[in-house]
Design goal:
The complex is a heterodimer of chains A (202) and B (196).
Chain A lengths: L1 H14 L12 H6 L4 H25 L8 H23 L1 H7 L10 H11 L4 H31 L1 E2 L2 E2 L14 H23 L1
Antiparallel strand pairs in A: 1-2
Chain B lengths: L1 H16 L2 H5 L3 H6 L4 H30 L8 H23 L1 H7 L1 H4 L5 H12 L5 H29 L11 H16 L7
The chains are: A mainly alpha (202), B mainly alpha (196).
Chain lengths: 202, 196
């Protein structure tokens, strides 16, 4: 029973307390680059979750064999294998999405979140915990990306998933679809998270 | 003549207009992590410039002369990451031998150049933008490094001043840095119309 509790807390940590984007500030590049609309944010989040989950499990299985000076190489090779799978999958089944995300899918290889989890969790703990950790972190990442994508899509285009949700008089600010919007939105959201955390601590 | 002009234009466009940090969101982690002090930012910029130039040229050659010729594109990502890891190892050995104090202050961030998305990103973009000559690939990868150095140095300069500013509590640290980066990106958008 105590075991279940621990597993669950590992899972929850990824979603709020150690949320990859808000608390650990990892995986910034895709966070900023692909959150122009919710759909690409969701695709990116799910691909990253898939890679994170698989690489966490494989690294955890290999952890007895890891040599300290070779581990980063082994991590990146494992990760790039799974990224190749994800990339080919997207090319085959979601060609326009794959076109739109372009090089940001292969860039999951160098996403610090995935390497960080391989180093901090998977290379030290068992397969089950690594699996749960990967799932929690991946979901936390996906949720954060979707929130960011939703805010930016509503402000820049007045739509969600491509459907118009705002009333006619709504003034869209296209700047939010551009790099400026990405940086500023994320900065303000981090500020908001800080405020919430101080409130919770009291 | 046209050739030289094309090279110069490509260089300017990648340094200013298509700056990897401000318009492609690449290399954000070291950009936020090492931009606290200007000397470190500069050292980091130089290290990245070296690695990106070397690996840009190498991956271009591997991609065009080996992978595409033998239809091995499927191992592209694996091959690229090996080249980059090798180049970073080289830099790490060099810096440790000749600049031990810089090596100390970089800490983990030097090894993390391997996972700097600016480098892999550029190698992939070279392929995506259909660069046709190796000279062009060299110029563009060098320009990307210079652009990154410029961006991180500007940021370090601003952050040194920010320490003295009165920032609201909830925005201290990362949030205000991100907002600053956003404003810089806005400024850099102004260069957008310069080259078609």
């Amino acid at each position: 029973m105590a075991d279940d509790k621990k597993t669950f807390s590992v899972f929850l940590a990824g979603i709020w307390k150690e949320n990859p984007v808000f608390a650990l500030l990892l995986g910034m590049c895709p966070t900023l680059a692909v959150t122009g609309d919710v759909k690409s944010a969701l695709t990116m989040g799910l691909s990253a979750t898939f890679v994170l989950l698989c690489s966490n499990v494989v690294v955890s299985l290999l952890r007895g064999l890891l040599k300290p000076h070779l581990r980063i190489l082994i991590f990146t090779l494992t990760i790039s294998t799974f990224v190749t799978i994800a990339d080919l999958f997207l090319k085959a089944f979601l060609p326009d999405m794959s076109e739109k995300l372009g090089p940001y899918i292969p860039l999951i290889i160098v996403n610090c979140l995935i390497i960080c989890r391989a180093e901090a969790c998977a290379s030290k703990s068992g397969v089950w915990i690594s699996f749960v950790d990967g799932l929690g972190m991946g979901l936390g990442f996906t949720i954060t990306l979707c929130i960011l994508g939703a805010v930016r899509e509503i402000l820049s285009l007045g739509s969600l998933f491509g459907y118009r949700v705002m009333p006619d008089g709504f003034i869209t600010m296209f700047a939010f679809a551009l790099p400026v919007g990405a940086f500023v939105t994320l900065g303000l959201m981090l500020g908001l998270v800080n405020i919430i955390n101080t409130k919770l601590a009291k | 003549m046209d050739n030289v002009q094309a090279l110069i234009l490509a260089f300017i466009s990648i340094v200013i207009v298509n700056n990897l940090v401000f318009s492609k969101f690449l290399g954000i982690c070291p950009y936020l992590g090492v931009s606290g002090r200007i000397d470190m930012a500069f050292g980091m910029g130089l290290a990245v410039t070296f690695v990106v130039t070397l690996s840009g040229i190498m991956t271009y050659m591997i991609d065009n002369y080996v992978l595409m010729r033998f239809n091995l594109e499927i191992v592209r990502y694996v091959a690229f990451i090996m080249v980059i890891a090798g180049a970073v190892q080289l830099v790490e050995m060099y810096v440790r031998k000749f600049f031990p104090s810089l090596y100390e202050s970089f800490g983990i961030f030097l090894a993390l150049i391997t996972t700097n998305c600016a480098i892999l990103g550029l190698c992939l973009f070279l392929n995506l933008w259909e660069v046709h000559s190796i000279l062009m690939a060299a110029v563009m990868s060098f320009g990307a490094g210079i652009g990154f150095t410029m961006a991180i140095c500007i940021m370090a300069g601003i952050r040194e001043e920010l320490e003295l500013a009165n920032v609201p509590d909830c925005l201290k640290g990362a949030p205000i840095t991100l907002i600053t980066a956003g404003l810089l990106a806005l400024a850099f958008m102004g260069f957008g119309g310069m080259i078609k």
